[in-house]
Structure formats: structure tokens, C-alpha cells
Amino acid sequence: MALIKRVHGIMPEFGENCYLAENATVVGDVIMGSECSVWFNAVVRGDVNSIRMGNCVNVQDGAVIHCTYEKTKVNLGNHVSIGHNALVHGCTVEDNVLIGMGSIVMDDCYIEANSIIAAGAIVTQGTRVPAGTIYAGNPAKYLKDVSPDAAEVFKRTAYNYVEYASWFSNPTK
């Protein structure tokens, strides 16, 4: 069973049909929408400020979501995929966004809808990523626009993780 802890009297809240891997950690002021998943060794740490997650958000293996004490919160929209070993810290991410494996998104960043943060990118503090763009590199910069068919990829990725979670929730399937 995942480690779920109360912090300062606040217990995480979960929508319907959420999956938490046995060694995932979710603590404090965290509210998840429905069909979210937090995978192996991932940490969602709402101890110093709040974390809000929409529906169909997946936090993949080893990823960390955290905030800055009394300064920054995390707000994640719907159909957000946070790749393996990514760090998402004190920022806002709108709907239909892919945060690539090993990337870092720092405090006060704002990632607009239908965007991609490339694997390994470092999005420095205060960066605003316009809707429908791909940012890559260190520091992350505009690479190109997202292709018109990518909107379906965002949702398909999010729903794939709902399906993957069902494999663990229903081990007899």
C-alpha cells in the first residue's frame, strides 16, 4: 500500500478510480481528480503548500511533485503526463501537457495547454511556455510548435496510464 500521510492535520484527497503504486508517497495538502495514477517511487509532497491535480493525471516512476513553503503551489490540469524521474516544482501546468522524462519544471513556471516539455529539459524559474509548443534544452527554449495531431497523443497517453493502472488494480485480468 502507498505511503499516504497527514501533514498539519491535512490528509490527501483522491477522486474516483485512482491508482497509487505500493511504494508511491502522497502526503499533506494534495487533492487529485479521478483516474489519476502515482507510480513506483513517485512522490507527491504537499507538506509545505498545496498540490491540485485534475483528472487523468499520471505521475510516472520516480517523479517528484513539490512546492515552496508559503510561496508556490502546484496546479496540474487534466490529461497531464509527468514522465519518469521528472521534477515538477511550484508551477502551473494546464490541460493536455506532457512533461518529459528527467525534465525539471521550476517555481513560478506556467505551462500552457497542449504543450510538451522535452525529456531532460530544464524549465527555469518563471518561464511561461505558450500553448501548443515544445520546449527543450538547458535552459529550456522554444523548439517548435506541436503538430496538429498531437492533441490526441496527450489524451491517449493519459488514458493509456488509466489502462495500465487497471492491470495492477485487477491482477486477475
Describe it.
With 173 residues, the protein is mainly β. 12% of the residues lie in helices and 37% in strands. The chain is built from one helix and 19 strands. Strands 1, 3, 5, 7, 8, 10, 11, 13, 14, 16 and 17 form an eleven-stranded parallel sheet that branches. An eight-stranded mixed sheet has the order 2-4-6-9-12-15-18-19. Strand 18 (133-136) and strand 19 form a beta hairpin. It starts with a strand and ends with a helix. The model has no long low-confidence stretch (mean pLDDT 95).
Main sheet: strands, sense, barrel = 11 strands, parallel
The share of residues in extended strands comes to 35-45%
Class inferred from helices and paired strands: mainly beta
Which parts are unreliable, with pLDDT below 50 for 5 consecutive residues or more?
Answer: none
On the 0 to 100 scale, the average pLDDT is 95
Rg computed from alpha carbons, rounded to a whole number of angstroms: 15 Å
Note the topology:
Layout: E1 3-5, E2 19-20, E3 25-32, E4 37-38, E5 43-53, E6 58-59, E7 64-66, E8 74-76, E9 80-82, E10 87-89, E11 92-93, E12 97-99, E13 104-105, E14 110-111, E15 116-117, E16 122-123, E17 128-129, E18 133-136, E19 141-145, H1 150-169
Parallel strand pairs: 1-3, 2-4, 3-5, 4-6, 5-7, 5-8, 6-9, 7-10, 8-11, 9-12, 10-13, 11-14, 12-15, 13-16, 14-17, 15-18
Antiparallel strand pairs: 18-19
